[in-house]
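As described in the Methods, two query proteins were run sequentially through the folding procedure within a single session, without resetting any intermediate state between them. The first query and its resulting structure tokens are shown here.
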Amino acid sequence: MNSKEKQIMDYLMGNVFSPILESEKASNSLKQGVRSTIMRLNERNAVGMLSYYWSAIIGTEKSTKFARLMKKEGFVRFEELIDDFREKFNDKWLKS
């Protein structure tokens, strides 16, 4: 994992994944979904990670179901980070 991938993962871990994984109130199903998402992201380079993020926002059947579960359980979803994520991880950043 190079520095760009690490920056993306650090951001998502801090804002989305760790709060769920460290929560006693998060369901096992939600925690397993987070672990699977982390594994899938770790298989990608920075461009692939960004593509994965935006695909999740657009919504596949699986991602919308997962987002609903996150919301139901009271956790931050990718959708709620759109503006900040877009500003941090834009084309200029990617090419830097």
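Immediately afterward, the second query was submitted; its sequence and tokens are:
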Amino acid sequence: MNGLVRALSKLIQHDRPWSCLLVALLFKSALFVVLIMRFRYSAFPGYWGGISHDSYSYIEPIEHLLASGSYFPDLRMPGYGLPYGLLRLLLPQAQALNALLVLQLIMDAIAVVLLARIAWMITRNRTVFASVFWVYAISSFVSLYDVLPLTESLTTSTLVIGTYAAFRSLERSRLSLALCAGFCFTWAAFMRPVMFPLLMLPPLIYLMHRTTSMRVRSMLAVFSLLPFIAVESAWIGRNYMVHGTFVPITTTLLMPDYLETPNYHVGLVVRSFGGSLTWWDPDAEIRAFNIRDKGEPEWLANYQPKPTIPAFATTTDFPMDSLLALAANVQYWNTTQDPAQKRSTFAYIVQRSDAYVRSFKHEHPWHYHVVAPLRLLGIFTLHSGTYLDLPRPRNVAERSVKWFYSALYLGTMLLGSAGAIVALFHRRWPRWALIVPLMFGYGLLVHPFVLRFCEYRYLVPFYPGGLVMAVWFLHTVFTRQHADQST
């Protein structure tokens, strides 16, 4: 055992990228196989992985494009569909999806190596490098999405690769690396539009890097923006030809099938007081309003105790009886088969939900503007981190694994948050590396405070930054303590 540890230690060095990649791929592949075997996915014949409702909104436009020459429905930007479409040109659908999962796996392994190298570039410390490498290599928080055709895995890896390219372009003053960084951040934004503000981070760090000339810094900044300018211009042009109007992102930021159900409108009610919107979470407050998944598993449908509407959610115009009546109407909408009754009940739910939001905002402005986003931040970040891979452990071994991964996740979030705050003011944190705490902080705050929409998976792309900040924070604390003891 000691011999194996020594051998791995020799392989995991910041100047041995290929051996690091081999080890990372080994560990990520093991997680990949375990996740597929555990869930026994069978979306359709020949396909290994899982599927979700959102997956089809990325797959169907590409299938339509290949069949008829038009990208439709264009409710999603084509960033995630691009690699699937290229694979689909060569392979049948099931095999193309399998290849897409393998691509996500490989990109995840590459991200392990490059994230550790980012930590090395910031600290020049081998322990920090090895710690980031091993923790990210064994972490399941991102790897869970390697086996699903969703944007989380590729977006996460792309942001890590883009950040590394940005740092390397500073070291070497190479415009090609700045172009690579810009391409990665643009690709991430076209997979998840919430990433668009992050496009300004590479130019920002280039301009803040005082050790090179202003001319070089300006050129790096310009080259990092060229991919976005080119791709976004093409996308806007295409949208103008199709829709006859200026559409920089998509025609809608929310799926029509979501807007046409009580989920969205009751969600406005729940987010007003800072409740959880993830209706597949058995403790989510939105379930108290009878928002459910169709065909949800028996354990979830019968989960006890059932969530209740909190007393602080009431207002003068909406006492508890009124909120319970709203929940009862949602349940009636769920069950009735009469189209006319369904339409009238939906109209009532929309009207009462909008009225409630106005009432709560007027009567409880402090709670609406301050307390509710803080509650959403807690819901967004302070959970087990194993809500999908191990929602209900069945034996001691699974409980042990769940506790380990939950501790790993929560430790990363808490220590990473502390590290991000400290780094912003720490004299030894390089100014050019501010992209790491700024990106992590953006990921933590944008969903609860700006969008007020917090599915757990939205945090996944920002987890690597939190890990770097957590390891750096621990390293800084222990180094400081050691220095104090030595004096």
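The CA atoms of residues 102 and 289 lie 40 Å apart. We note this only descriptively and draw no conclusion about the first query from it.
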